[in-house]
Write a structure and sequence with these properties.
The chain has 7 helices and 17 strands. It is 28% helix and 27% strand. Strands 11, 12, 13, 14, 15, 16 and 17 form a 7-stranded antiparallel beta sheet that branches. The protein has a 4-stranded parallel beta sheet with strand order 5-4-6-7, with no helix packed on it. The chain folds into 2 domains: 111 residues, no CATH class; 184 residues, ATP-grasp fold, B domain (D-amino Acid Aminotransferase, Chain A, domain 1). It is globular. Helix 1 runs parallel beside helix 2, helix 1 packs across helix 6 and helix 2 crosses helix 6. The longest helix has 27 residues. By secondary structure, the chain is an alpha+beta fold.
Length: 309
Amino acid sequence: MSGTLWSSDFHVEGGRVKVRATGADLALDRALFTDIRLWLGYYVPVRLMGLWTRLTRPGPKVWFTPNAPRPWYLLGLAVFWGGVRIARSPGDAQAAVYFEDSTVGRPPACDVPQRFNFDCTDVSKSHVARVFEAVFGYPLTVNPMTWTGPVVEKGEGNGAHDGRIVQGPCPAAPGRVYQRVIDTVDGGHVVDLRTPCVGGTPVMVFIKRRPVRDRFANYNSSVSLHRPGDIFSPEELAVIERFCAAMRLDWGGLDILRDSADGRLYIVDVNKTDMPPLRLPWTQKMQAIARLSRAFLAMINGESARGGA
């Protein structure tokens, strides 16, 4: 487990910030400083709550490998909130979590009996689409050379936000995947249903809205917190859980889209290292972290994440 300083995760050059793990390239501008300020609205109260919890009712010891989740990840915040203690070695841990911000990974050997996300090693867009079609029974991907009309072209990488709409039929570019355009437009905004899942169960839904022109941007105009049962039917929740089981996903966020034309759900992305939505109102931020923390502790303790949320 990495114990390096946070600063080692970033590299600043030419007025831009590059994230070493993912290759993300961010402009060092006012928007980035605004995001940092909004993130501090998560981090400071969560850290204070975590310190109090560790003093009054310390949580279980968990081994994270190959990296401990930094506090800008949802898992890092949930761990802080719940007073979880980070084990110094596998032999000192009640459970182990595979945490690596990569699209395709290879978990280190680990003999801790309780292991989470160790079998979820591929979250590439093509693999997610194959699992989605097998579980839901209808396809997300298309053949761009035979598809007539608009189609989404994006890279395989996790968190790249490099999607664009192209017109089919068109040649298939190497390393790119092609998916149908899901109509989620409502009032000039596209609507995403980011659904954090713990123990293979949806715990909450962040409804994220952004202008249509920014369909693929890593930015939201607004975000609101909802319970899964208010957004999905019981049948939909059951098939989402089957999808998590097929992906071998114990902790992670699903990007789900609901097609306005027929109401069908499409899972377009799986993120094991998801980050908090910064545009969420502060009170809902605290509610979300509290629910996620309870669900994480329930999973570690072998209880129902649904009941813990």
